[in-house]
């Protein structure tokens, strides 16, 4: 089965979905490493557990504000990073299968102890900010 985008519009949708999944997956990994359940996260966010569950669903379209609130509840600071796609030319429609898998698009770390959740991008450690 081939899941490559057939045109630029589909390529944009694929990019949006990959980014959403990356954000959700990163937050879930942080929850797991901290031993925090969706129920506990809901308590920290002061919201109903079904709302937290919807945030992690495939139909979710998380906003920047939501991501920031979830990060705050997990005591991490979101850091956005982007890089050009070297192997993909939107004009020539290079096949999706030829695009290298992206690194972590979102890197997150605790406010006080960066070494506990420090993440790297393509093997390069996340540097201390400011």
Characterise the protein shown here.
The chain is an alpha+beta fold and 130 residues long. It has one domain (8-125): lambda repressor-like DNA-binding domains (434 Repressor (Amino-terminal Domain), Orthogonal Bundle). Helix content is 43%, strand content 11%. It has helices spanning 8-34, 38-45, 49-55, 64-73, 114-117, and strands at 76-80, 106-110, 120-121, 124-125. It has a two-stranded antiparallel sheet. A two-stranded antiparallel ribbon has the order 3-4. Strand 3 (120-121) and strand 4 (124-125) form a beta hairpin. Helix 2 (38-45) packs across helix 3. The chain starts with 7 loop residues before the first helix and ends in a 5-residue tail after the last strand. Residues 87-92, 103-109 and 113-130 have low confidence and may be disordered.
Q: Architecture, according to CATH? A: Orthogonal Bundle
Please identify the structural class as seen in this structure: alpha+beta
| pLDDT averaged residue by residue | 74
Low-confidence sequence ranges: 87-92, 103-109, 113-130
Which strand order does the major sheet show?
A: 1-2
Number of domains: 1
């Amino acid at each position: 089965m081939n899941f490559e985008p057939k045109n630029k519009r589909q390529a944009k949708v694929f990019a949006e979905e990959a980014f959403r999944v990356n954000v959700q997956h990163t937050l879930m990994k942080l929850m797991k490493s901290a031993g925090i359940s969706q129920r506990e996260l809901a308590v920290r966010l002061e919201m109903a557990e079904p709302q937290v569950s919807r945030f992690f669903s495939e139909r979710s379209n998380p906003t920047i504000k939501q991501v920031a609130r979830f990060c705050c509840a997990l005591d991490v600071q979101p850091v956005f990073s982007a890089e050009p796609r070297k192997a993909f030319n939107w004009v020539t429609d290079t096949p999706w299968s030829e695009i290298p898998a992206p690194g972590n698009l979102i890197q997150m770390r605790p406010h006080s102890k960066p070494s506990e959740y420090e993440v790297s991008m393509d093997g390069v450690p996340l540097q201390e900010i400011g």
